[in-house]
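Late entry, flavin mononucleotide complex.
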Amino acid sequence: MGSSFSEGDYRELLRRYPTGVTVVSTTLNGRDFGATMNSFTTVSMNPPLVAVFIINGSRTLEAIGKSGKFVVSLLSGTQEDAAVGFSRDGDDEKFMKFSKSSTSDGIAYLNESIGRIECDLFMKEEIADHTMIIGKVTSSAIHNQNTSMVYYQRKFASTGK
Ligand SMILES: Cc1cc2nc3c(=O)[nH]c(=O)nc-3n(C[C@H](O)[C@H](O)[C@H](O)COP(=O)(O)O)c2cc1C
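Prediction complete; structure with ligand written out below:
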């Protein structure tokens, strides 16, 4: 049981850690931005804070910095097309292919997700090649009772009932 660091082994280990899958979105000057994110986590309940870690250079990250608002859509087990579509670098028309709605603040989100978390940007901190985005939850809603999406071993799967 060696304790030295091997990036290959480390990546291999992380692939065995299942996560949920979200699409983090915002709208700026009438343009919608969004990206698939599995780094979503809750931070605290009082006040309700969530975090997501976004690669520097992401257009969604830049737009959130300017709009000051974002929505986290929690994907259902049947939304593999959205998970793949919103992870496509350089695609400016991601939202065109999916049914969307807008929050009362005019921020776009995916209709078919199991639910959404609406946030105001609370804190933004650059950490190495990512930026930590902390959101203060202003509203949340359950959209349906579908199964949830899981990302595991570089594949998308669905939770049981
Ligand atoms: C399952 C999955 C999870 C991902 N999670 C993240 C993440 O947590 N943070 C991140 O910066 N990129 C993540 N990505 C990559 C982004 O979705 C991808 O870079 C996206 O194209 C960025 O789009 P944008 O430049 O339009 O913002 C993930 C991709 C996949 C497939």
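The chain has one domain: 24-158. Will revisit in the morning.
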